[in-house]
Structures are given as structure tokens and as C-alpha cells.
Design goal:
elongated, mainly alpha, single chain, 0% strand
Length: 69
């Protein structure tokens, strides 16, 4: 594995980014299905996404024995 792959698998920042982009994609698809266009202007959506995406790194911080491998 490359150094980036190891970092991306174990980093708390990478965990946040993976979760953040997955939720943004799900939110965009749900908005598109509901209103027929992508609407990224709602700041509440971005705030909720950021808070939810912060949960996995926080949970990993609380349980340092948890590992991906």
C-alpha cells in the first residue's frame, strides 16, 4: 500500500472527509429527487452535514483501540 492509502485508511481527517462527501452526495440526490435540481444554497444542510460527519472521528477518538484492520 502507498503512504497515502495508509493515511486515508487511518486518519481522523480522512474519516471526516469520507463521511462528509458521502452525506453531501446523499443530500444532493435527495434534493434533486424532491425539487428537480441540485440546491446547495441551504446553509442548514451544510451545518448538519458537517456535524454528522464529525461523529466517526469523534467516536474513534473515544475508542482508540478500534481499528480498521
Amino acid at each position: 500500500m502507498t503512504e497515502f492509502s495508509i493515511w486515508f485508511a487511518n486518519s481522523k481527517i480522512a474519516s471526516f472527509l469520507r463521511t462528509f462527501f458521502a452525506i453531501v452526495l446523499a443530500s444532493a440526490v435527495a434534493d434533486f429527487q424532491k425539487i428537480g435540481r441540485f440546491d446547495m444554497t441551504n446553509w442548514q444542510t451544510w451545518l448538519i452535514v458537517a456535524l454528522v460527519a464529525a461523529l466517526p472521528p469523534f467516536l474513534r477518538y473515544l475508542n482508540p483501540e478500534d481499528s480498521l484492520s
